[in-house]
Amino acid sequence: MTKLEKEIYDQKTELKVVFDFVTKSSLDLSSFLAAKSIYFVGCGSSYYLAISAAKHFSRQLAKFTKAIPGGEVAFHFAENIPEKVDTSLAVMISRSGDSTEMVLAAQNLKKKGFQTFCVTLNPESKLLENCNDALVLPVEEESVVMTKSFSSMLLSLLIIADLVSKTNLDHYQSIFNNIDYFFFDPSYLDLSKFKHLVFLGSGIYEGIARESSLKVEEMSLTQAEAFSAFEYRHGPKALVTEETLIVIFSNGTKEERRLAEEVKAYGAQVIERISIDGFGRDAFAHVIFSQLMGVHLAKLKGVDPQKPRNLTRVVEFNL
Ligand code: F1P
Questions:
Q1: pLDDT at 304 over 80
Q2: Atom 16, ligand 1: which residue's CA is nearest?
Q3: pLDDT of residue 215 exceeding 80
Q4: How remote is the CA of residue 123 from the centroid of ligand 1, in Å?
Q5: Given ligand 1 and candidates 8, 45, 291, which is best to mutate, with the most ligand atoms within 8 Å of its CB?
Q6: Candidate from 96, 130, 290 with most ligand 1 atoms within 8 A of CB, to mutate
Q7: How close is the Cα of 316 to the center of ligand 1, in Å?
């Protein structure tokens, strides 16, 4: 088993460790309570988990939330964030804590007087130095491609939203009890027959669809697309043929089923990964399917998923 595969399978036990760590840490969550608006900022995979986290906070706390790429906050601040008029919080998400845009974004937010809360794996990062509060997770990940860091950081943020909204955390227990459901092995699929890969998800699963296409692209150097599920009907479906594989992360609603039927009728093969938690708290675990799919596709193509072309573990920008 390669290091990357080990990091994927570590999630079977480590996600529960992360759950215990976050629920037992005495985190100061007062800034989440005080904030009227909460921004979630990240780059790449960390941005995609920001999308899912923002949606859970919006529902749980009934506050305005928005996920923003780090580069937007670093270089286009005013187009994304209005001048501070009330208490606003920015949650800064970064595995390395050293992505250039994230450090610049945190410096901009600090100058403007925003409260910042950092979620990272790196206790010595530049990002941490520029944030007011932090959650540093006890997770080690060496690979270039993010796998367990994605699920761990997303899980932590979902838990924080539930802690702040005083929601019962029992939901997570049933997700951990059913963790094997998320390690669904895609190797039964003859992926070689598909020329077009699409991931769809709405609500909290939008971020999972976006991360899924990134995983497949990085690991197997295969182009893949992702959309907020119902957006797919507004144009992109024109590309569907019998060589299209569509993965839908779904709540199993009648609208989502109808969408699946529609794209099947155009010739696509559809895999529906149905929620086992009515509120999408299992989003953090759903991404495992796509991580396994990335590895599987890489093997089929003879590509090393541990060495994505042109990508480094920390993405820095020499300015
Ligand atoms: C995230 C990121 C990933 C990318 C690669 C390197 O940075 O750029 O999107 O896939 O794994 O890291 P961060 O979370 O460290 O800021």
A1: yes
A2: 94
A3: yes
A4: 16
A5: 45
A6: 96
A7: 10
Per-residue confidence (pLDDT) for residue 85, from 0 to 100: 60
pLDDT tens digit sequence for 79-129: 999 976 668 999 999 999 999 999 999 999 999 999 999 999 999 999 999
Counting atoms of ligand 1 from 1, which one is nearest the CA of 315?
8
Give me the pLDDT at residue 86, please.
66
Ligand 1 residue neighbourhood (C-beta within 6 Å):
43-46, 94-96, 99, 102, 144-146, 218, 311, 313-315
What SS3 state is found at 94? strand
Mode of pairing for the β-strands spanning 133-136 and 115-120: parallel
- Tell me which amino acid residue 74 is: A
Q: What pTM did the predictor assign? A: 0.97
Closest CA to 159 of 17, 263, 316: 17
313 alpha carbon – ligand 1 mean position (Å): 7
Which 8-state DSSP code applies to residue 160? H
225 dihedral zone (left: phi>0; alpha: psi -120 to 50; beta): beta
- Angle between helix axes 148-164 and 45-61 (nearest 10 degrees) is 20
Give strand pairing partners of 134: 118
